[in-house]
Design goal:
alpha+beta; Collagenase (Catalytic Domain); Immunoglobulin-like; 3 domains; 7-stranded antiparallel sheet; 5 helices; 14% helix; Secre_tail
């Protein structure tokens, strides 16, 4: 991981000594290398309080995965805790906040591992790993060191603080206490902040400083209903284009919803943010957990030959699969198939399954990008029987934009498989109108200005295997 590389590059000059702490997995959905690994660090828990830390971390996990879309995609995550003991309990309260009349809480200083401090940057509820950004540098080194020494393959880390006073903060390593204020738990701060650090969501509240505004999943300067990036959600689930403010620079920026978790804690994520979270999940994790047979695992195959997929399924399952044998549809939406001798040609046969997720959380038909995951088996069938079976897995991220369009449509795909994709644009009655090839990491522009206004089908093929289909709208 990039974080780990830069960390080791840095500490090679800093002589930071390794410290190994007790670790425990509190949510196990599968192999770590095939899941998103969330790591929770303890802060302000003495050695005798680490059992309580596990309870508090478990309560946080239950709260997070009780909410959409984490509830539906819970099987894509593992959660691990690192039990980092502190000399004393709690967090610092310097009594230096400027947004309250101090002391709003008893002034105290405690010796904790990551220096958790309320009143940071002058805000009483801002619980950060130091009083400000200047002091935070050394603590960030400690956080990175603990992660590198104890769980270097983490995807996201957060810090849970042993304090019943409400507070938290964001950044690379979100931090939250276990306090409650006006019925809202600090857990909500952590989930909101994970929306930033892990899923690239923006805040939807105002006031924000000008530097925090920027084009993102849930923030834009475009307010045209037909052009805004969440156009496919417009006028559903409360989605529209709402100004951050009616004057000043914020008047030029728009959010998708008036009551999203990225604006108000304890609210659910809006449809646009849920879609962004799920897209990131699919970027990080393939829904294909494993498959069989793998290459040459069957030394003397006999018929029928059994093929199996083990999928990481959302709850309820929204995954769809298309099985093709020698470019012809074999079956759909099953995890197991049997191939008979009569199904095969003499010579080389190709069996492919393509998996995608057309969840109702995603506006897949007109979404700019979508994810397809494939397994391909090559079956060498001779007159004397099966000579061998080889297999490989590939992931595709395919983009077709803008959509709708009246002139130019762009096609692009990224894959760990360097093969070309064939794109076939057809009318709804099946007539092929345009056929083109696109190469990995290249963008192809196609002029469709001569086509009649209406809807078309775009099919994407890897070799002779259909891996995805998408609707194209010509204005």
């Amino acid at each position: 991981m990039k974080q780990l590389f830069y960390f080791f590059l840095f500490v090679s000059f800093q002589c930071v000594s390794a410290q190994v702490f007790e670790k425990e997995t509190i949510k196990n959905s599968g192999d770590n290398d095939k899941r998103i690994n969330l790591v929770i660090l303890s802060e302000g828990y003495q050695t005798g309080e680490l059992a309580q830390f596990k309870t508090d971390a478990t309560n946080f996990v239950n709260a997070m995965f009780g909410q959409s879309p984490f509830k539906e995609y819970t099987s894509y995550f593992n959660v691990h805790i690192i039990k980092v003991p502190s000399t004393q309990s709690g967090a610092d309260h310097p009594g230096t906040a400027t947004d309250v009349t101090e002391p709003a809480s008893p002034v105290r200083f405690v010796d904790t591992y990551f220096n958790a401090t309320f009143d940071s940057f002058g805000f009483h509820r801002l619980l950060f790993y130091e009083i400000d950004g200047n002091y935070a540098n050394n603590t960030e080194i400690k956080i990175n060191s603990v992660l590198a020494d104890n769980f270097p393959t983490y995807d996201q880390a957060l810090i849970l603080v042993n304090s019943t006073i409400y507070g938290g903060s964001g950044g690379e390593f979100p931090m939250a206490s276990k306090g409650v204020s006006n019925g809202v738990s600090s857990t909500e701060i952590a989930i909101h902040e994970l929306g930033h650090s892990m899923f690239n969501l923006k805040d939807e509240y105002f006031p924000l400083e000008e530097g925090y505004f920027g084009e993102a999943i849930n923030m834009t300067q475009q307010n045209s209903p037909s052009l805004v990036k969440w156009k496919n959600w417009m006028n559903t689930n409360g989605i529209s284009t709402y100004q951050y403010n009616n004057s000043g620079f914020a008047a030029n920026w728009y959010r998708p919803h008036q009551g999203c978790k990225m604006r108000y804690l304890s609210y659910p994520f809006c449809a646009v943010c849920k879609e962004g979270v799920i897209e990131k999940i699919h970027t990080l994790v393939s829904p294909i957990d494993s498959y069989s047979p793998i290459s040459n695992s069957i030394t003397s195959p006999t018929f029928p030959i059994h093929f199996h997929l083990n999928l990481i399924k959302p709850i309820p399952n929204t995954l769809k699969s298309i099985w093709t044998l020698n470019a012809s549809n074999f079956t759909n939406d099953v995890d197991d198939i049997n191939v008979l001798e009569s199904d095969l040609n003499t010579g080389i046969n190709t069996l492919t399954v393509a998996v995608n997720d057309p969840s109702s959380f995603l506006k897949v038909d007109n979404h700019d990008s979508f994810h397809v995951y494939t397994v391909t088996w090559t079956i060498d069938n001779s007159a004397l029987g099966i000579k061998g079976i080889t297999s490989y897995i590939a992931n595709y991220n395919i983009a077709m934009y803008p959509n709708p369009t009246n002139t130019i449509v762009n096609f692009k795909f990224e894959s760990d498989n360097n093969a070309q994709l064939k794109v076939v644009i057809s009318s709804l009655d099946g007539k092929k109108i345009k056929i083109l090839s696109i190469e990995n990491h290249h963008t192809n522009q196609v002029d469709i200005s001569n086509l009649s206004t209406g809807m078309y089908l775009t099919h994407f093929y890897s070799g002779n295997t259909l891996i995805a289909s998408k609707k194209l709208v010509k204005n």
